[in-house]
């Protein structure tokens, strides 16, 4: 086991270590199952979209030059020679002084180079009056104007949204290669921990962290797997780690990084093949006693047992690490940040990064940030909070009215 013990690392150092985490394996899924998944290969267009010039408005396909100078007082008169039907090619071309009725999305007939909106016309028997001139290609989507053949439409590492599936479908892609959901194993430790359905005796507490870890891991795109609850005993934890490592892409240990149990966690991780302790303490509040290690190339996190500290570390460090091994490559550990004006002074000792629970209030076009103060261990303060206000390590707090960065709970 290699490691630099008790050398507390800054948040940015931990994020940089996470950049080297390799993604998990790849699978192919139908479009119906691709939303929210991470693309595992670039999607390159092998055809133009649209494949033909088409109308962007309901109206009449015309030669633009036939409308030049048209006005309400001196309209242009054009003879209607047919209609373009959806899903069919036009039966004839548009000649000088002619027009064809066309719906939105209809194929532009030969000879026409623009579409007059139906609102700017009036039907007079077999003719129309045009009250407004158009320029060439007005109200027309040209062939390949949306997507061109050979264009990089979606890049590997992108988390797919519903609109991305529309692009894939329009190019005839029925299936997409995506990174599989990482399997994240959860181990709860602690002599004082009892199952949630059991009434605790004095000195005992219910197993809370398992469920918050599970929920945040799911939000990050993982498949959580509970590996079990163990006492603060090295042999028991070693057994769970050796059992879980072959099944999982990452393991999260809750409660094994506080004073008294930290050595047990370190020794248990160190017993694994190719174990390497990368982080043994992070300059973050709350959550300083955090461990980050690798075993056989797979990440292992030792999380604080304190529920609030555990949740903060999960959002700030573990959440982006799960997305990383899940294939996401957006270059930002937490790309969902907001900014707003803080409504109270908040002190913060320099040298550590503080994450303060906050309520958010939308007022007009601005966002107001209300810090929540109270006992650091209260779960209710996390329930009340909408997110975490980040105070960088270089700052000695923030002043009322100052712009701050907020990481919203997703």
Name given to the CATH homologous superfamily of the largest domain: MoaB/Mog-like domain
Q: What's the story with the biggest beta sheet? A: 7 strands, mixed
- Number of H/I helices: 7
**Sheet with most strands: strand arrangement:** 1-19-21-22-18-14-17
Q: What's the structural domain tally?
A: 4
Give the end-to-end Cα distance, rounded to a whole number of Å. Answer: 36 Å
The radius of gyration computed from the alpha-carbon positions, rounded to a whole number of angstroms, is 30 Å
Summing up helix and strand content along with how strands pair, one would put the structural category as alpha/beta
In short:
With 410 residues, the chain is α/β, with parallel strands linked by helices. It contains 7 helices and 27 strands.
Describe the protein's architecture and organization.
- With 410 residues, the chain is α/β, with parallel strands linked by helices.
- The protein has 4 domains: 2-25 and 180-325, MoaB/Mog-like domain (Molybdenum Cofactor Biosythetic Enzyme, Chain A); 26-49 and 146-179, Molybdopterin biosynthesis moea protein, domain 2, CATH 3.90.105; 54-141, Molybdopterin biosynthesis moea protein, domain 3 (Molybdopterin biosynthesis moeA protein, domain 3, Beta Complex), CATH 2.170.190.11; 338-405, Beta-clip (Beta Barrel), CATH 2.40.340.
- 18% of the residues lie in helices and 31% in strands.
- The strands form 7 sheets. Strands 1-19-21-22-18-14-17 form a 7-stranded mixed beta sheet, sandwiched between helices. Strands 8-5-7-6-10-9 form a 6-stranded mixed beta sheet, with no helix packed on it. Strands 23-25-24-26-27 form a 5-stranded mixed beta barrel.
- α3 (209-219) packs parallel to α6 and α4 crosses α5 (262-270).
- The radius of gyration is 30 Å and the shape is elongated.
